[in-house]
Amino acid sequence: MNRQPMVTGEFYHAYNHGVEDRDIILDNFDALRFLESMRVFNCVQPIGSIYEQSFVHENLLGGETAKSKLVNIVAYCINPNHFHLLLEQVSDNGISEFMKRLGGGYTWYYNNKHKRKGSLFRGVFRSSHISTDAYINHLSAYINLNDHVHQLGGETAKLVKSSWGEYIGKVTHPMCTKEIVLGQFKNKKEYKKYAEDSLSGMQDRKKIEREEKYLMID
What we know:
The chain is α+β, with helices and mostly antiparallel strands. Helices cover about 45% and strands about 15% of the residues. The chain has 9 helices and 5 strands. The chain has helices spanning about 30-40, 50-55, 95-115, 135-145, 145-150, 155-160, 165, 180, 190-215, and strands at about 10-15, 70-80, 80-90, 125-130, 160. Helix 4 crosses helix 9. The relative contact order is 0.17.
């Protein structure tokens, strides 16, 4: 977990879980609201609520919401009980401010909708510095296919939102800054193969991690 000041121009993996492994996404509207929050709260200028912003931006999910961003979102995956973000900090203290707005704003929405109080996430978000292009590529694949890494299925899988569709060209209104990753491949098809070829190894490592966790509990 990174507690050092984050450097503008550098890349970081930011993630968090629901408190006590609580689901943070209960339906498709929750998932869309989380995406909407990512887009709207990513601006240097102070803003109000998403409701207030809706009077400024006719289509929050379909267009730009800020001229001066806090971060570039490189990749993301929102799972029912946790999320992963690959971020480039583009404004000083940008990641911390973005994550504070995202966590606070979404928690307010979630608690209001689902009639609860208190923290929704497991404390302050965690992060790690991504220092090499190879690591950025690997992490982008891990995040884009994170629901497959966890082998989610059924109704649970339907709630997942990730940037995978952006990377393979199946999203009309992209959110991510993908050039840092896709620029290292000949085309999207080559990146798709790289990510899918990496999946089996990531699933195996996740299985080992789960087994080790259970052994520690026992």
